[in-house]
Design a protein that fits this description.
The chain is α/β, with parallel strands linked by helices. 35% of the residues lie in helices and 17% in strands. It binds pyridoxal-5'-phosphate.
């Protein structure tokens, strides 16, 4: 039987998506060729790229609003440097909200390009909350934030209203909840959390933002070049893009983001209710800032860890140990994780309570 996969990333994909990907690897579109052995410029693959780009915009409600969708390489980590290189003019300024390891990684790269103001940070509290009381310098060229902190299990529930472009790393919660995505000017997300396998990164960018930095940008790092080339400036990672498309189709067929959001809310409520009810466990993140995608929780008494670990492993659960910077457990409940898997997890927590 398939494991209950709570892995933080690369992470669970819908069974139907895996089946379709496997079939395309063997025989793509009845061509008697594998998806992996055809030209990325063949009509069949160009269709995949076009559909993936337009469906990403459609699901986010951004079609016809001046945005372009790109499937790039180098992971979300490459966006840490592509964003300042493309958006921060020489002598310019960028504002960043430091809410976790990934935000800090983005800040480190931005500093290579110019003045980078950290408007607030929860680092001193081991990133257990999202700072809310901060001022963004009005002369910043953009504001950067991370919508969901995969490692610490916090999630931004609201975003500041600012008179400047807003850039958001949505790697671990894109397509998981409804929002007015047009409030953002640039959104990026590594595929391997909520969209597909590792190897491609979705970038949604407002075209009006580009070509203003006055910098000479190497071609592979230039959003404009990737837009002109329709996301095929060089050979794209065909497999992760194909699997991302199939995942987006799966999401659309089930009713899009609004439909998955309801299930995600049920999953999160089920688990957090148990974390709060069960006297053996406690949540790691501030309650108001808890992530619906990555729930971090700890045992009050670490001495129970060997018994609990044997219980959840026996229940067919995988990927539950917490990140080393938080410890305890992290249950990643991405779109493809069924509600039943969360019920199995809750059952193991109750089983521990009964056996102590
Ligand atoms: C996983 C993750 C990253 C890093 O993604 P890579 O594709 O490995 O570079 C960045 N930001 C967030 C929020 C993540 O969850």
């Amino acid at each position: 039987m398939k494991k209950h996969n709570f892995s933080a990333g690369p992470s669970i994909l819908a069974q139907e998506v895996l089946t379709k990907t496997a079939a395309a690897i063997i025989n793509f579109n009845n061509s008697d060729l594998s998806l992996l052995e055809i030209s990325h410029r063949s009509k069949d693959f160009v269709d995949v790229m076009d559909q993936a780009r337009s469906l990403a915009l459609e699901l986010l409600g951004l079609t016809g609003k001046g945005y372009q969708a790109l499937f790039l390489q180098g992971g979300a980590s490459m966006q840490f440097l592509m964003v300042p290189q493309n958006l921060m003019p020489i002598g310019g300024k960028a504002a960043y909200l430091d809410t976790g390891t990934w935000a800090a990684g983005a800040i480190k790269e931005a500093r290579l390009f110019g003045e980078t103001v950290v408007v607030a940070s929860s680092k001193e509290a081991n990133y257990s909350f999202i700072p809310t009381d901060y001022q963004v310098p009005t002369d910043a060229n953009y504001f950067h934030c991370t919508s969901n902190n995969t490692i610490f299990g916090t999630q931004m529930k609201s975003f500041p209203e600012l008179d400047m472009p807003i850039v958001c790393d949505m790697s671990s919660d894109i397509f998981s909840r409804t929002m007015d995505f047009s409030k953002f000017d640039l959104i990026y997300a590594g595929a391997q959390k909520n969209m597909g396998p590792a190897g491609t990164t979705l970038v949604i960018v407002k075209e009006a933002l580009l070509n203003k930095s006055g910098r000479t940008i190497p071609s592979m790092l230039d959003f404009e070049k990737h837009i002109k080339a329709e996301s095929m400036y060089n050979t794209p990672p065909v497999l992760p893009i194909y699997t991302s498309l199939v995942t987006l189709q799966w999401l659309k067929n089930m009713g899009g983001i609004a439909a998955i959001e309801k299930i995600n809310e049920q999953k999160a409520a089920l688990l957090y209710n148990e974390i709060d009810r069960n006297p053996l466990f406690k949540g790691a993140a501030k309650v108001e800032d808890r992530s619906y995608m990555n729930a971090t929780f700890l045992l009050h008494d670490e001495a129970h860890a060997p018994l609990y670990d044997s219980i959840w492993k026996a229940a067919g659960i995988s990927g539950l140990p917490g990140h080393r910077s938080v410890g305890g457990y992290r249950a990643s409940m991405y779109n493809a994780l069924p509600l039943e898997s969360v019920q199995v997890l809750v059952d193991t927590m109750q089983e521990l309570e009964k056996s102590i």
